[in-house]
Amino acid sequence: MSRSLLLVVLLFAMSSAGRAQPAETVVLLHGLGLRGWAMWPLQRALAREGYRVVNLTYPSRRVPLEQLAGTWLPANLRARGVSAAPRVNFVTHSMGGIVLRAWLRADGVPANLGRVVMLAPPNAGSEVVDHLMDFPPFRWITSVNGPRLGTGANSFPRTLGPWAGPAGSLGIIAGDRTFNPLFHAWLPGANDGKVSVANARLDGMGDFIVLHHSHTWLAWRGETLAQVKAFLRIGRFSRS
Hints:
- This protein is α/β, with parallel strands linked by helices.
- The longest helix is centred in the first third of the chain and has 16 residues.
- It has a six-stranded parallel β-sheet with strand order 2-1-3-4-5-6, with helices on both faces.
- The protein is globular.
- The chain has one domain: Rossmann fold.
- Strand 3, helix 4 and strand 4 form a beta-alpha-beta unit.
- Helix 3 crosses helix 4.
């Protein structure tokens, strides 16, 4: 090989090595009755890590869970270019995790699915819903989806089966602090005021950790942000 050709090859190799790789995408899904602002701390933290962050606001009260999972979510993922991204991760809070599980069950696991972190998901439902589902103000506030998140055998979360994604791809963060003594009394064992630690678990998850925070504010805590980043990066939570 001539010296000039060798130089061209070396320059091309150096240029390719320095070329930025496409950023991984992280989709954020908030909980019932909230909007994308509830995930702003995660959005900022993950953007600083170099991820492309898609923070979706979805009609959590007005549209039934089946439609959110079967129609709304896939349509919005396509519209945001997520379906064609090389690798897509998800971080969900509360009912957002149920929407994600229902989507994976309805559409199947996409080939580009990366890692998933669920914050305080009612994977086996919530006893708070059991107590309040026939209380008119609760049904008005939570509308079409809230009463479906109880712990009965036919509650929506319990119909979805175990984790559908690849082995080791799901990490779950539960909280064990609450400021509501009434809800705390309704929930068995350690809980975050809305979901018990036991009911946050899901068969097939890759890792699980409990942090000392409440349900609503779990997504805003620095410790939570650090654990989310750790799982997305290495596939397990940090226990150092």
